[in-house]
Amino acid sequence: MIHATAVVHPGAQLGAGVTVGPFSIIGEHAMIGEGSVIGPHVVIAGHTRIGRNNRVHPFCSIGGEPQDKKYGGEPTGVEIGDDNTIREYVTINRGTAQDAGVTRLGSDNWIMAYVHLAHDCQVGSHTIFANLAQLAGHVHIGDWVILGGGTLVHQFVHVGAHAFTGMSTYLDRDLPPFVKAAGHMAKPFGINGEGLRRRGFAAATIAALKQAYRTVYRGGLSQQEILQELARQGAACAEVRAIAEFIEASPRGIIR
To answer: Other CB atoms closer than 10 Å to residue 169's CB: what's the count?
Structure first.
C-alpha cells in the first residue's frame, strides 16, 4: 500500500490498510491510523499523529515547522482525529512551546483546498472550512463551525460552536457560538438558524437563541447587563448559557 516512489522513514508508524501515494514523504515521528489514505506529493513531518480513516489529498504539508520566529526546534506536534477529509494544498503547522505545543484538528472535518492552520490552533469536530480559509496562530474553533471561502481569522481569536462566516470574512475578534458573521471587518448577521435546523435543534431552542442575539447586539446594554440578562434567559436553555459563558471568557472581546 506504499507506492515505490514514496519515502517513509523506518521510524514512522503506519496502521493497517494505510495507503501512501507516489512521491509522498512520511517523517520519522509520524503516526498514521488504520485505513487512512495519504495521496501523492504529501509531506508529513514532525511529531504528527493522524487517526483512522483520514483522506489527505495531494500536495498537503502537515507537521511542518511553525511560521513563528520564536520557534527554536522544540519537539512540538500536530494531532488529527478520525474521518477527516483534507483537500489539496492544505498546510497544518506544528505547535510552539509558548502555547499548547500541539496544533489540533478533531474528527469528521471537511477541510477544503488551500486552507492554512497555523501553529497552536485548536479546531474541533464536524467543521467545514471552505477554500482559502486561513487561521493565524493560537486560534480556537468550536465544533460544527463553517468558515466561508477566504475567511481570515486573526491570531488568538476564538470562534464558538455552530458559528458561520460568509465568504471573505475577516475576524479580528471573537465570534460567539451560533452567530453568523460576514464582512471586513466582520459584523454579526443573526443566528445561524438554517444550520441549526439542519442539525435537529428544536424550534424553541432556536427562538431562545434569537432572543439572546437581540440581547447581545440590539439591546444597547453594557456587557455586565448582557451577562445578567443572558443568565436569566439561560435558566431554561443550555445553548443560551453557552453564549453567556463564551462572552464572559472571551480573551479579545466579541465582534460588534
So the answer is: 25
Q: Which residues pair with 25 in a beta bridge?
A: 7, 43
Task: Tell me whether strands 13-14 and 31-32 are parallel, antiparallel or unpaired.
Answer: parallel
Catalytic residue among 68, 82, 120, 174: 120
Q: What is the set of domains in the chain, with CATH numbers? A: 7-138 (2.160.10.10), 196-249 (1.20.1180.10)
3 state DSSP class of 114: coil
Query: pTM (2 decimals)?
Result: 0.97
- What's the one-letter identity of residue 186? A
| pLDDT per position as a tens digit, 185-196 | 999 999 999 999
Q: Is the CB of residue 123 less than 8 Å from the CB of residue 100? A: no
Give tens-digit pLDDT for 196-218: 999 999 999 999 999 999 999 99
Catalytic residue among 119, 138, 158, 162: 119
For residue 137, indicate whether it is catalytic: yes
3-state secondary structure of 83: coil
Specify whether the CB–CB gap between 191 and 181 falls below 8 A: no
Burial 54-65 (b: 16+ CB within 10 A, else e): bebbbbbbbbbe
- Residue 253 to residue 231: CA distance in whole angstroms: 18
Contact 203, 220 (CB under 8 A): no
Strand partners, 159: 141, 175
Going by the DSSP 8-state scheme, the letter that residue 66 receives in this structure is P
Q: Which of 76, 81, 67, 78 is nearest to 110 (CA)?
A: 81
Query: Does 33 qualify as catalytic in the annotation?
Result: no
Catalytic residue among 63, 64, 81, 137: 137
Residue 78 and residue 56: Cα distance in Å, rounded?
A: 14
Active site residue 83: no
